[in-house]
Design a protein that fits this description.
Enzyme class: transferase
Family: Belongs to the glutamate 5-kinase family.
Strand content: 15-25%
CATH class of the largest domain: Alpha Beta
Radius of gyration: 23 Å
Helix content: 25-40%
Pathway: Amino-acid biosynthesis; L-proline biosynthesis; L-glutamate 5-semialdehyde from L-glutamate: step 1/2
Order of helices and strands: EHEHHEHHEHEEHHEHEHEHEEEHH
Organism: Virgibacillus necropolis
Strand order of the largest sheet: 3-4-2-1-5-7-8-6
Number of strands: 12
Subcellular location: Cytoplasm
Number of domains: 2
Distance between the termini: 41 Å
């Protein structure tokens, strides 16, 4: 096959219901359809990474359950069986087409630690550059509920940002984004082009997912918001549609396309990590004047900008920056521990001004400009 003129790095997320049979087991037929489309893209020169659900759904029947278990230990035990079945099937089918697939199991801790985050990024880049198809899933066997990404929709968006993807494709058992819930409103219309996630769109997103999955439309919208903030185009469509992946990449699929506005401030790797993965360890309160300067001028914080410090943290930690009313302004990386910052606040006005002069001359600011993320509804963890 002739390579496409414009090759892309593409992250494809496929949900449990799109991979499993009516009995809840891995459907080889469904996997073969997906792999064939991925191979078609690979032969066009594209780099492909899969974020695949299905481990719990694939394993619970082998554990003796008739329906998907509810308790965490039972789901984790099911995942320990199902993940092996899932990756074995993927590898077998990809190898039949001459491609190598790899398994990457990730936890939220891997993203919240900046060194591990960068290590995962470097490893995946090597795999993609060598023509391998990485298959990513959350490590459900050891992840605790309160430390999970929540669902693979969110994981896929964060992985797309991690690898600087050109496009995120989310496949599920739904046709795309509607202006109302099509299950309740027969006049609901499919939205083909979206350049902004408005409050009305979020309100129209329903919570429930399918019986074999964990994410509904709400989780997909949240994932797409993360991707758009990172400057990544996204597509949402039905996995059962013929040639859905190939057509999505070539912009003529039936579904919903999400394109970031041209004027959006794309977040670089550092800011993506701060905004979506770091997990703030404390809070710093600033005055109203500083709030406006951060938002409008992207200033860095000086010692005299601080009002109160909440929590205990060390130098290099990510903190939430709030105003005196408690409203979130953004996130930043501090150059001092909470103890040192509290010491700054306790200084007299004259002592503070003298210290600030020295701090600025030596570039010892509380938060560096390039490490701050302005207030935005997209700044979540």
């Amino acid at each position: 096959m002739t390579p496409d003129i414009e090759t892309k790095r593409i992250v494809i997320k496929i949900g449990s219901s799109s991979l499993t049979s009516i009995n809840g087991e891995v459907s080889r037929r469904k996997l073969e359809k997906l792999v064939e489309e991925v191979v078609r893209l690979k032969e066009g020169g594209h780099e492909i990474l899969l974020v695949s659900s299905g481990a719990v759904a694939a394993g619970y029947r082998r554990l003796g359950y008739l329906t998907r278990p509810d308790s965490l230990p039972e789901r984790q035990a099911s995942a320990s069986i199902g993940q092996g079945l899932l990756i074995e099937t993927y590898c077998d089918i990809f190898m039949s087409h001459g491609y190598v697939a790899s398994q990457i199991l990730i936890t939220r801790d891997d993203f919240s630690d900046e060194n591990r985050y960068n290590n995962a990024r470097n490893t995946i880049n090597v795999l993609l550059e060598r023509g391998v198809v990485p298959i990513v899933n959350e490590n459900d066997t050891i992840s605790m509920d309160f430390l999970k990404f929540g669902d693979n929709d969110t994981l896929s968006a964060k992985v797309a940002g991690l690898v600087d993807a050109d496009q995120l494709i989310i496949l599920s058992d739904i046709d795309g984004l509607y202006d109302a819930d099509p299950r309740k409103d027969e006049n609901a219309k499919l939205l083909h082009k979206v350049d902004e996630i408005t409050p009305s769109i979020e309100a129209a997103a329903g919570d429930p997912g399918s019986a074999n999955g964990t994410g509904g439309m709400k989780s997909k919208i949240e994932a797409i918001k993360i991707a758009m903030a990172s400057g990544i185009s996204s597509f949402l469509g039905n996995a059962t549609t013929k040639d859905i992946v190939y057509d999505a990449v070539h912009n003529h699929a039936e579904g919903s396309y999400f394109e970031p506005k041209n004027n959006i401030q794309n977040l670089n790797q550092k800011k993506q990590w701060i905004a979506f993965n770091s997990g703030p360890q404390g809070k710093v309160t600033v005055n109203h004047t500083t709030r406006e300067a951060i938002i409008n001028e992207r200033i860095s914080l000086n010692p005299t900008d601080l009002r109160t410090i909440t929590g205990r943290f060390e130098k290099g930690a990510v903190v939430t920056i709030i105003d005196v009313k408690g409203e979130v302004i953004g996130l930043g990386v501090v150059n001092y521990s909470s103890e040192d910052l509290n010491n700054f606040i306790s200084k007299t006005e004259i002592e503070m001004k003298n210290y600030e002069k020295v701090a600025i001359e030596n570039k010892h600011l509380v938060c560096h400009l390039d490490a701050e993320v302005p207030v935005n509804s997209l700044v979540t963890n």
